[in-house]
Amino acid sequence: xxxxxxxxxxxxxxxxxxxxxxxxxxxxxxxxxxxxxxxxxxxxxxxxxxxxxxxxxxxxxxxxxxxxxxxxxxxxxxxxxxxxxxxxxxxxxxxxxxxxxxxxxxxxxxxxxxxx
Amino acid sequence: xxxxxxxxxxxxxxxxxxxxxxxxxxxxxxxxxxxxxxxxxxxxxxxxxxxxxxxxxxxxxxxxxxxxxxxxxxxxxxxxxxxxxxxxxxxxxxxxxxxxxxxxxxxxxxx
Lengths: 116, 111
Hints:
heterodimer, A: mainly beta, seven-stranded mixed beta sheet, four-stranded antiparallel beta sheet, 11 strands, B: mainly beta, six-stranded mixed beta sheet, 12 strands, about 0% helix
């Protein structure tokens, strides 16, 4: 299994809703990532988990709350979002980075979020 | 800090034309270099990579050579197809730092 699976593919939510995005991989990768991608822009890193511990938080607003319940799963909990948070949210995984820097990220297909 | 610069798009070509998408980088240390491709409505897929100077990455007819002297990693393909229409991202990672993307170049191939 060489895939990163993201659900749901599409999500529409109001500003007062609470929802979650889910990501799963079974490649034995111990690093997992959330990226946000706006239209016609490159992905922007949000969070990195390494061995199920949060290792990087790129100053993301607290209305985004990541969770890594085990080595295969990564969630992104959403609460009180703003319309400008509408974007494609990409999950990725890799081997834990080492000094060679050659670890390749495998991306999921993304969850397209619309905030009304 | 580390950065990647790609040529502005869109690049518009006819089928079977030769493709070059330029990518240059700035990095401390010895980065690994990547090309990712994003087809419409999809996530990113690794197209090819190179981890040291003079390495050539290749996949699906695409090639890129890691040129340390010019800090470049240009993507080339000898004969593009309509199915190659996508956005191409050049990226690097150095040491323990995060993956850094260029702004992306949209390729449009017409029959």
